Amino acid sequence: ILLDKDGKRKHTRPTFSGQQIFALEKTFEQTKYLAGPERARLAYSLGMTESQVKVWFQNRRTKWRKKHAAEMATAKKKQDSETERLKGASENEEEDDDYNKPLDPNSDDEKITQLLKKHKPGGGGLLLHPTEGETS
After folding, report:
1. Structural domains of the chain, count
2. Cβ of 45: how many Cβ atoms within 10 Å?
3. Does residue 71 belong to any structural domain of this protein?
4. Would you state the pLDDT for residue 31?
5. Would you give the distance in Å from CA 27 to the centre of its chain?
6. Which range of residues forms the domain containing residue 70?
7. Taking a C-beta distance cutoff of 8 angstroms, is the pair 48, 20 a contact?
8. CA angle (26 as vertex; 21, 31 as ends), nearest 5
9. Does the residue 25 lie in any domain?
10. Taking 60 as the threshold, does the pLDDT of residue 123 lie above it?
């Protein structure tokens, strides 16, 4: 037992063997919480106190929650970016809707020219109305 400078008992951190940690981790995979009798059995079988097992499980749950929260945050970011990507794609599709609609014979040539320029580099090289002197 170690004493601090005031003569009080100083608690040292227990070091667990690889076998003890392995058994604790395996148990934790099966259940995140141990009831009193389960904790007592596990502590006895590993040569640990019930208090040590209890604290180990508390600390392990905290670590598990942090990791789980980080994974959830990463998944949410990935989902949000995918949603944004799909949203951007649908906005582009909405812009293309005008191009894919049948042409209104009463629409002005300027609107048609704009659509062609937007979707075909160089305006597509199409003439809508032949100018004077040109034949179709």
Report:
1. 1
2. 10
3. yes
4. 92
5. 28
6. 49-75
7. yes
8. 120
9. no
10. no
